Backbone:
């Protein structure tokens, strides 16, 4: 069994809904810039970790554990901060766990771009795996910490 841990520094983000804009000819659909940038950040850290251990994109079924660590609000008392760090109080706030999972899974996918001349999608950047449908087990947890971050642990069978 192999595993890989990826740490994305900064406050956890969520997958935003697609946006629409009208032009004279049609309606255009696009992903918000903030979402695209966070997916790029996830992809960058995943590729860096993957290259450290020298593996190609994973082609096997895998399990992902995502731990989102949020910063403790400054308005909390010292006692409440200690409870948060001990894990006695957990963040029940936005972003939702499923939206955290969506942005992480999309960030670990290869970045594709449609080539209109070839009429197909072409890979621009490799991802951790070939497609997020390979994830057969997914667990998302939300915690408080002094340093906000997202920790992703991927495990897969070598066989």
Residues:
């Amino acid at each position: 069994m192999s595993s890989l841990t990826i740490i994305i520094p900064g406050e956890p983000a969520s997958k935003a809904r697609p946006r629409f804009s009208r032009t004279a000819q049609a309606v255009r659909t696009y992903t918000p810039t903030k979402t695209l940038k966070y997916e790029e950040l996830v992809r960058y850290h995943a590729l860096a970790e993957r290259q450290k251990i020298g593996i190609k994109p994973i082609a096997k079924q895998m399990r992902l554990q995502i731990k989102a660590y949020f910063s403790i609000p400054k308005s909390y008392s010292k006692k409440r901060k200690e409870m948060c760090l001990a894990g006695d109080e957990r963040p029940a706030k936005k972003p939702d766990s499923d939206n955290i999972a969506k942005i992480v899974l999309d960030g670990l996918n290869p970045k594709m771009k449609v080539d209109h001349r070839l009429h197909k999608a072409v890979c621009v950047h490799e991802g951790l795996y070939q497609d997020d449908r390979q994830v057969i087990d997914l667990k998302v947890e939300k915690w408080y910490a002094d340093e906000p971050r997202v920790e992703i642990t991927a495990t897969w069978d070598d066989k």
About this structure: Residues 20 and 158 are 43 Å apart (CA to CA).
